[in-house]
Amino acid sequence: MTYSLTAVTAAGAPALTEDIFAQASVDPLDQLRDVLAGTVVRTTKPSDPRVLARAAVTAKRRIQRCDYTQLASHLPGLLADLTPGHRSESDQQRVDRVAVDAYHVAASLFLKNGDPPSAWVAAERSMAAARRVGDPAAIATASRILTHAVTAVGHHRQSLGVAIRGADEISGAVTRSQPDRVAVFGALLLRGAWAASAADDRDTASTLLDEAERAAALMKESNRCWTAFGPNNVLLHRVTIALTLGDAGKALVEARKVDVKTLAVAERRAVFWTDVAHALHACGRSQKATAALLAAEREAPQEVRSRPVVRKLIGELLMRDQGGQVALLRSLASRAGVAV
Q1: With left for phi above 0 and alpha for psi between -120 and 50, is residue 48 left, alpha or beta?
Q2: Rounded to an integer, what distance in angstroms lies between the CA atom of residue 320 and that of residue 286?
Q3: Is 50 exceeded by the pLDDT of residue 226?
């Protein structure tokens, strides 16, 4: 697949065309933003939907393995090839299904890197594709990432509305005999619960968590539809939500209930340990917080070394440990590029 980046002058005429992958960029996500901005154009015929579907699977695997560097170089080409082209109606439907997941991954990558506005744009593209597909499961999938992005921007009432609407649309189709729908429904409830906690709406967060727990009882721990949904993921979200609500002590109590080894993907296991580290830090237990971050790093090095929120935590731990009493903290900081 070949793409070009066209810069447009103030008069609207093409000024420069060059291979986007030959450009050096300080920010590895700039190429992805170029695609969202529409400055990347396809210079070859549209790819076979089967090729795009395989590329989307690769992207999903990379985000769940926290392989953010490879993902950032892989996604621009995939997204550029999802733009409308001369396809049959059936092929376009298949491409739209790919787009739901591909834009979902793009939004997740932006969120991991602290760019909620770009995440919102990508999440909207995921939702638009899901609406074209018309499948409640696809709409629930897109609703989950859109809820996350809108929450991250700070529009809590709207994000909660997205989650509840999406859950309502799929709820009538959720049965034990349809585990894929259970998974996307339950994962959306969890994201809605987190959105409610970000708005300090404890009652709604609790209600949605309980609903997700009932959904999880219908299935075993799994990674159906790339959700990592199951009973232990619900328990993990209880940790996250307690922490978001400012109750670090409760977060640590809930963390003891989680069987980390059964969490379906590395990203979830790493998030568990970073949440535990945040809770321990809030309770003044720097040495144990460092140990939790090291556990997260073993699960997914890039989740610890590259995410702004985790690097900030490492910096705060360093500030507290002026005397250098916490073993291994400085070597961790060095690997994460945090100034000692």
Answers
A1: beta
A2: 8
A3: yes
